[in-house]
């Protein structure tokens, strides 16, 4: 009698990681690494990331992509922007490595993991994730980092075939790329009405805000403190998986507005952030009038993100918290 393999989505977090580790070992040789190279789990969420080492002690991040979010073409484009940032600027970003076949993206299957997975290898970035440990001067440096990314995106001549998601009103609100918030387990009728009303108002504001060259371009799109790395007094950034074309203000909202939204620290933080930003690019203070619409859009899309990724036990348990956060954010927006 043939042994049965439990469906991947029914496994515990640990069980899923064990399966992904087996898949990782299949792809390592494609990047000129030993199949038995050390693998240290960094995270199993949107994607699965392991730290690994070569024979000389150099370390790398091996990222295994989830299914049905990014295509090989969009991942290849992400790697092209990272390579250009590393070559053209002084910014500290993960540098992608090519496989034996010269390609950044390697496609691999394993019997215990559904689908063919795209995998990339990036040079490891030393330093500490900022998270909640924000040292003096952090916001000013973060503003300069954010503007430097935007400036490069404006001036960079993108290669033929470059393709990334457009984080417009459709992808954020009308038909969210992350997933449908209304499919969230435990969503009550008042929550649905709240989400609907907030979405409709934000759509109106974003349409009025527009997509002129001063406001729209290539963005990181996930520049929260968990993706910022501190290296002494300098800052770098990781995880460009969501990078694409979007509003510069969306990056600013994720990076600086949301951590202090509706707190006494808001004015001071934004003053420092924009001082750093303006060292690189101009910014019109009037644009911040639309910041709350982007706070709403981010919360709306993140509810859908968790709902569509509830096959991951580590993410599924965050759903109640995300619903509570959305209520706290959306009610004042609607004057409730």
Q: What does it look like?
A:
The chain is α+β, with helices and mostly antiparallel strands. The protein has two domains: 118 residues, Phosphorylase Kinase, domain 1 (2-Layer Sandwich), CATH 3.30.200; 205 residues, Aminoglycoside phosphotransferase (APH), C-terminal lobe (Aminoglycoside 3'-phosphotransferase, Chain: A, domain 2, Alpha-Beta Complex). The chain is built from ten helices and twelve strands. The strands form three sheets. Strands 1, 2, 3, 4, 5 and 6 form a six-stranded antiparallel sheet that branches. Strands 7-10-11 form a three-stranded antiparallel sheet, covered by helices on one side. Strands 8-12-9 form a three-stranded mixed sheet. The longest helix is centred in the middle third of the chain and has 21 residues. The radius of gyration is 20 Å and the shape is globular.
CATH superfamily grouping of the largest domain: Aminoglycoside phosphotransferase (APH), C-terminal lobe
Tell me about the largest β-sheet.
6 strands, antiparallel
Q: Report the order of strands and helices.
A: HEEEHEEEEHEHHEEEEHHHHH
CATH topological fold name of the largest domain: Aminoglycoside 3'-phosphotransferase, Chain: A, domain 2
- Provide mean pLDDT, rounded: 95
Short structural description:
The protein has 336 residues and is α+β, with helices and mostly antiparallel strands. It has 2 domains: 8-125, Phosphorylase Kinase, domain 1 (2-Layer Sandwich), CATH 3.30.200.20; 129-333, Aminoglycoside 3'-phosphotransferase, Chain: A, domain 2. It contains 10 helices and 12 strands.
């Amino acid at each position: 009698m043939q042994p049965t393999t439990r469906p991947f989505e029914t496994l515990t977090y640990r069980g899923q990681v064990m399966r992904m580790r087996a898949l990782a070992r299949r792809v390592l040789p494609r990047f000129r690494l030993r199949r038995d190279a050390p693998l240290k789990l960094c995270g199993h969420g949107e994607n699965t990331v392991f730290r690994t080492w070569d024979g000389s002690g150099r370390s790398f991040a091996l990222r295994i992509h989830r299914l049905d979010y990014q295509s090989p073409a969009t991942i290849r484009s992400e790697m092209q922007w990272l390579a250009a940032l590393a070559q053209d600027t002084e910014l500290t970003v993960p540098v992608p490595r090519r496989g034996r076949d010269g390609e950044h993206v390697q496609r691999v299957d394993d019997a215990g993991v559904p689908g063919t997975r795209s995998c990339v290898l990036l040079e490891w970035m030393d330093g500490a994730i900022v998270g909640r440990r924000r040292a003096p001067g952090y916001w000013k440096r973060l503003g300069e980092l954010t503007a430097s990314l935007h400036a490069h995106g404006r001036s960079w001549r993108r290669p033929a075939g470059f393709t990334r998601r457009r984080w417009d009103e459709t992808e954020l609100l009308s038909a969210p790329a992350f997933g449908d918030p209304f499919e969230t387990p435990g969503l009550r009728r008042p929550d649905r009405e709240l989400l609907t009303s907030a979405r409709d108002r934000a759509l109106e504001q974003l349409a009025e805000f527009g997509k002129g060259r001063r406001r729209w371009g290539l963005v990181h799109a996930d520049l929260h403190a968990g993706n910022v790395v501190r290296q002494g007094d300098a800052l770098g950034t990781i995880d460009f998986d969501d990078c694409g074309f979007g509003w510069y203000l969306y990056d600013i909202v994720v990076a600086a507005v949301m951590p202090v939204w509706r707190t006494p620290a808001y004015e001071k933080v934004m003053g420092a952030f924009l001082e750093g930003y303006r060292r690189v690019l101009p910014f019109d203070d009037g644009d911040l009038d639309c910041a709350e619409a982007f706070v709403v859009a981010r919360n709306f899309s993140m509810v859908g993100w968790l709902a569509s990724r509830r096959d991951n036990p580590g993410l599924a348990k965050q759903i109640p918290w995300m619903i509570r956060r959305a209520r706290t954010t959306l009610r004042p927006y609607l004057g409730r």
